[in-house]
Fold:
Amino acid sequence: MLNTKELEQMQFFANKVAEVHWPEHGEYIEINDLVKNIEYSNDVTDEVFEKLRELTNNYIIPEGACNAQNTLLNLLKKLDSNIL
Structure:
């Protein structure tokens, strides 16, 4: 599981990436919504991670990704791998 600092970072970067990249990558709006739900839920379901994997192409960092995207995807991947 992510520590509190990493969870806060994930939420910050999910929001930042959604704000900046939504015109070209609308999937980041949904990713941001899912990350917000992680914050408020003690029971993160497999369905949440299935959807995150689908939206992020299994957390693969796209070519030309900015630092915020890179950080977000790495944190999501870490959270997912720790839950499995």
Q: What stands out?
A: Residues 4-83 form one domain. The longest helix spans residues 4-21. The chain is about 70% helix and 0% strand.
